Amino acid sequence: MIKLKTLFKNANIVTPNILKHGNVIVENEFITDIVDNNILLDADEVIDCQGNYLCPGFVDIHNHGTVMGSFYTSNADEMEKASIFMAKHGTTAVLPTSLSSSYEDIMSFLKTIVNLKGKNKGSKILGAHIESNYFNPKFVGAQNPEFIYSPKEKEYMSFYDTGVVKRVDASPEIDGVLDMARNLSKRGVTMSIAHSGADYQDVLRAIDAGFTHITHIFNAISFLSNCYFYPKIGASEAALLQDEITVEAICDGKHIPPELIRLMHKVKGPEKIHAITDAIMAGAPGGHNKLWGCDILVEDGVGMLPDKSAFYGSVTTNDVELRVLVNKANLSLCEAVKMLTLTPAKVIGEKNIGAIAPGYYADINILDKDLNVIYTMINGKKFEI
Ligand SMILES: [Zn+2]
């Protein structure tokens, strides 16, 4: 095979472990080297970054859909449109996410991913995330209560047997969930505590059974409650306290105060907290929108129920989150980029995406000084639509 060499020169490279000035070399779909600016190299294509930032493409491991199409669908064209929309915002890899729903709907979503993975345009589809039916009914948030029940082994194993399930969310205090966690975690599935009323002891039992992650911390999950005089921590604080648990947060600047993101980052360190969109309709315009037969009001950059009584998922994209993390949560650019790239990739066990380093896939964004995405490469090819 002929090697096609691309040289990105004069870049401020966010690896994301460090920020350094230099050139990045891509051969076919992989990054092969990072060298100093003054080294002269031949290449088939030279891209002058003009001192702009060059960082890994964003990795979103919790996303239900976009204004251009849903990820939770059995329609391959629609899923591809959603991937294209996300890639326009610098997301080079995505883990499509289901919602509480019928066995048949979840199976057809998984089969769509089996057929589409590795073939679609736009963000790479990494597998499937089942934000499942096995939740605490008191914490279902926007999930459909009709499909909330205890796990059945036959059901979750048939999901697993499709071969694409990377992550399953469930409430550890619900009957049968710990057995499921033991079963799936030893098969390499990331188990995440979600839509849960767990207390500290429940979280310790969850860790023992193989849970390693918490889903949209502080949203639709227990946190500090003041029972008269005696405060009691919930799943959110327990996850922050225990080193075994990695944390994801919706960093649209609305679901979680930016100061809390900064505090959590301080507690967990850069390897153990990351951003997700949890988008239900990324990029939706302000006003009333229809989704899965429901009315969603988008106001002030967030989706909500029409009576404004609760949030109904996010409408954000990863590039918006990057700017929230840097400009509102006051994290450094390296810290913020890591929360959108390397850390989420590692949470689901991906080994060669999310960094600018030799051997990693050439999934690359160039950002201007205001952190807008001005160029995206996926698997060594320029993304353009
Ligand atoms: Zn979700």
What can you tell me about this protein's structure?
This protein is α/β, with parallel strands linked by helices and 385 residues long. It has 2 domains: 5-54 and 370-382, Urease, subunit C, domain 1 (Roll), CATH 2.30.40.10; 58-351, Metal-dependent hydrolases (TIM Barrel). Helices cover 25% and strands 29% of the residues. The chain is built from 10 helices and 24 strands. The protein has helices spanning 76-88, 103-116, 153-160, 177-185, 200-209, 235-241, 258-268, 318-328, 333-340, 342-347, and strands at residues 5-14, 19-27, 30-35, 45-48, 53-56, 58-63, 65-66, 69-70, 91-96, 124-125, 128-131, 165-170, 190-193, 211-214, 225-227, 230-232, 246-250, 273-276, 287-291, 294-299, 302-304, 364-367, 373-378, 381-382. The strands form 6 sheets. Strands 1, 2, 3, 4, 5, 22, 23 and 24 form an 8-stranded mixed beta sheet that branches. A hairpin with a 4-residue loop joins β1 (5-14) and β2 (19-27). α5 (200-209) packs across α6 (235-241) and α8 (318-328) runs antiparallel to α9 (333-340). The mean pLDDT is 95.
Please give the domain count. Answer: 2
Task: Give the oligomeric state of the chains in this entry, treating copies of one chain as homo and distinct chains as hetero.
Answer: single chain
Give the C-level CATH assignment of the largest domain.
Alpha Beta
Strand content: 25-35%
End-to-end separation in angstroms reads 26 Å
Radius of gyration: 20 Å
Average pLDDT rating: 95
CATH topology of the largest domain: TIM Barrel
Q: How many helix segments?
A: 10
Question: Helix/strand/pairing class, anyone?
Answer: alpha/beta
- Helix percent band: 25-40%
What spatial form do the alpha-carbon principal axes imply? globular
| Main sheet overview | 8 strands, mixed
In the predicted model, the low-confidence regions spanning at least 5 consecutive residues are none
Q: Ligands bound here? A: zinc ion
In CATH, what is the homologous superfamily of the largest domain?
Metal-dependent hydrolases
Total count of strands: 24
Tell me which CATH architecture of the largest domain applies here.
Answer: Alpha-Beta Barrel
